[in-house]
Amino acid sequence: MDMLANAKNTVFASALIILAIMLMLCLLRAVLGPRVADRIVAVNMMGTMVMVMISILALKMGEGYLIDICLIYAMVSFLAVIVITKVYMGVYRERKSRKKEDVNV
Amino acid sequence: MFEWIRFIAGTGFLATGIVIFAIELYGAFHYDYVLNRMHMAAFGDTFGIGVSLVGLMLINGLDFTTLKMMLVILFLWCASPVSSHLIARLEAATNEKLEEHMEVEKE
Amino acid sequence: MSRKKTEKEYEKTFACHFFRWLHGEKDLYVGQMEMRPQEVYQESKEEAEKRQRAKNILLNKIYGRKKSKSIKYLELFYRLASILFCGILIYLLLLTVSWLPPIGVADRPVNNEVSKRYIEKGLEETGAINIVSGMILDYRAFDTLGESHVLFVATVTVLIMLRLDKKHDNGTDLSIEEAEANDRNYEPKNDAILQMSAYVLVPAIILFGIYVILNGHLGPGGGFSGGAIIGAGLILYLNAFGFQKTERFFTEKTYKWISFGSLSFYCIAKSYSFYTGANHIESMIPKGTPGAILSSGLILPLNIAVGLVVACTMYAFYAMFRKGGF
Prior knowledge:
heterotrimer, A: 90% helix, elongated, C: mainly alpha, 3 domains, 13 helices, 66% helix
């Protein structure tokens, strides 16, 4: 089954290279975007692409336990989005109400 | 013989998944406003990773690793739409000029 | 300027932007991204007065400067003594470093036979398939005990610096504490979608964390990573439901008892191992067959203890940064 192993390796390697190029373009989107939500969306996309790359690597090296890292990474990126949106909305509303107070007073 | 069929099917799914990611990336650059881009990103993320991981599961065969990948898919299908909802709420609450891009209901 | 296009059309093309950038006539940041051109920071008088008042309150409360003269002398002595102590410590550490062997000598302690023995005989002496776990929890368990204590000391340090006391002395003290509590007034609370997904996800995350802790000796993982995962699950619960509901099951008492209990259990269990090992008595803890969950002696209980300490520490850090106590 040597042909099968060769074919598998080729498929995995090419998928990894394509995903890596797309990762760089996502980073471009994160730098360019004019609003804050743009950047959060771009970082989320990068996280998902990295997850697919980790799964491909786990199959390529034959080590099955690296999929746990995928799960942990998904959880961490989810938590990051939750905390950032909560804190940013709080700060924004506080500043707005303070400005309104100043204008009224 | 059976292995070759499984391998080719798995490669097909994986290629479809990567094409979906590429479409998502193109959509993120093409639109003007952040909520349109977010719609593209959420849709491409969940669908793309589902199809790619199904392809990888087919290449691998039935194993403990395959079950773990199914767990990753389930977790992401529960968590990613909630992320999009939170980002959309952030954008709607902090944008002063929302009426330029869409109709806003007066409460 | 070009002959085929008008001025306005030319300004929109790519070539115009490129040449403007090339000659340095264009400011890259204004109008494009979120940055505004910066102005000089003017501090209004009230803000300066408020800052000065807060600083005076803090100094009076901690140092009691206005109270007596002996405290001033004590302060001076304290500063001199601390400088002297740091100087002696630096000197001693540098002296120890100068005794290390130079690079490249063949009989350095790194190249001796210890690592070969760990790899060859690790499985049969500790019973753990994951040799790294066997090393940090069996061969070098003393270092891991020190590491758990370092985690504990870090939490205590952050507690000292960030904690808000609940005593109200007089009118001016309220300004600092009220300002902290009002930080979270405007945040969005009780989002229905987040709560529904937290109902489903938090048990799954905590279960996964327990799986990683219990399989520390069979595959990668162990106490530290499993504890971090459980801590993340608790943070998700807190974000979705708020502080009131979380304080129903995780208060300061819980944190104290869990940390104290885990660290004491670790000390007692490892003291037994040290005692029997040093006096060449046969220890009665079974090693089991490698590959089963209940195997490899003491590694499983120690993993559980370390995992609990790490989970509590992660949650405590988050709560202290958000609220100033828990």
